[in-house]
Amino acid sequence: MFLFEFIKRIKFCKNANRIGPDIPFTHWRLHFKTTMLKLCKRKFNYFDDSAYFRAGAYAEFCSNISIGKNVVIRPNSMLFADENAKIIIEDNVLIGSGVHFYVDNHKFDRVDIPLIEQGYYPSEDIVVREGSWIGANSMILTGVIIGRNSVIGAGSIVTKSIPDFCVAAGNPAKVIKVLSND
Fold this sequence. Notes:
alpha/beta, 27% strand, 6-stranded mixed beta sheet, 3 helices, 5-stranded parallel beta sheet
């Protein structure tokens, strides 16, 4: 019985539309640049040659995730796309460790049905525009667009889109500064 489970798990790991520590037969590849690139280019919708996906990070529904130039997905980060919504991280985006992206959210409208049985609200794309910086342990929620060259403070929960050239922080994240050449 164990051998059958083992073979089944190997096949699952090879074909799963995700990458993460719970996929051990492919996760080891993230420790080496050449095998990391080969795996990520096969799994993700787009993965640039200059991008990195570090061991300890997790991505669900990789086929709807795009990672641009000079982007590093650091350990403990989690990218949760689904069949209906994408995560797009454009070029030259800085992402701290432990950043989470969620394209959907559980429904919680009814008191007569357990939350786990209520399903999900419709999912929406998340886009992080070129040159942005997302601080460690931040959370980016469904439908959010992080504007070009904007900064998200560490530990922020971003529930609404942030314009270009802004600094936003808090829970929920709010614009606290507009960047300018002055």
